[in-house]
Amino acid sequence: MSQNKGRVLIIAGSDSGGGAGIQADIKAVTALGGYAATAITAVTVQNTLGVTGVHPIPVAIVAAQARAVLDDIGADAIKTGMLGDVAMVEAVAALLDSAHDVPAVIDPVMVAKGGASLLAAEAVAAVRTLLIPRAGLLTPNAPEAEALTGLPVATTDDLRRAGEALLKLGARAVLMKGGHVDGARVVDVLMTADGETSFEGERIDTRHTHGTGCTLASACAVGLAQGMGLTEAVARAWAYVNEAIRRAPGFGAGHGPLDHGWPLREKR
Q: What's 203's DSSP letter?
């Protein structure tokens, strides 16, 4: 792993509760030894009980944040999260084109853990046509995969079918997340044109899973930024998130945050 790499530009929304969004992204990238820079797309009012307000940042300001980072600090990977609407998706697609040699991890965030919508309905089509073909890695959960493909996703085999459809839409790799699929074990499937790798573990009985999707995508992104191969980056990210769930601090009365910082304490 190169010590001169590891820069991740994160384009996503802010979570005032610190469990998801930009806050989770920065924590994950830092805990795994990378450097996080950001372009914030929205300020949300939220805690473990849910989202009660969203203030979008103007698209031109978001694009300017990203451009400022790329023109000076640079990036070894770009990770996207909450984008909000069609104009933001279009701006991000243009930005990815301008940084075409930088791998993009696209987390197609649509709904917050508490159920609040974080992506306008008309923007789903824009994600499908503009971002999926630009994704080095796409990380949908089952509901997001259903929205993007129109296919039902209730089983692991359904995940695979949806993953195949997303690869046909142009993603170079997809990590199909199985947390929403019923069963005693959670199975995530990494799929590329060359084959698939499954990541499987016992389902952890906890309500403290806020930000797992953001955290996993950013953990994958920093691995790619550090020069890891795709499967190696996803394997490390998967293990990191699994342990972060196990060590969740128990904050809040709702869907609580993970323990993002656990690797840092292990190194002491």
A: P
Contacts of 35 (CB under 8 A, 6+ apart): 6, 7, 8, 29, 73
Asked if 253 and 48 count as a contact pair (C-beta separation under 8 A), the reply is: yes
| Angle of helix 212-225 versus helix 230-246 axis, rounded to 10 | 140
- For 32-59, the pLDDT digits (tens) are 999 999 999 999 999 999 999 999 999 9
- By annotation, the residues acting in catalysis are 177, 209, 211-214
| pLDDT greater than 70 at residue 220 | yes
Q: At what angle do helices 142-149 and 156-168 cross, to 10 degrees?
A: 50
Full set of structural domains in the chain with CATH: 7-137+209-263 (3.40.1190.20)
- Contact indicator for 176, 140 with CB cutoff of 8 Å: yes
For β-strands 35-47 and 50-56, DSSP reports them as: antiparallel
Sign of the dihedral defined by the CA atoms of residues 146, 140, 67, 133, in that order: negative
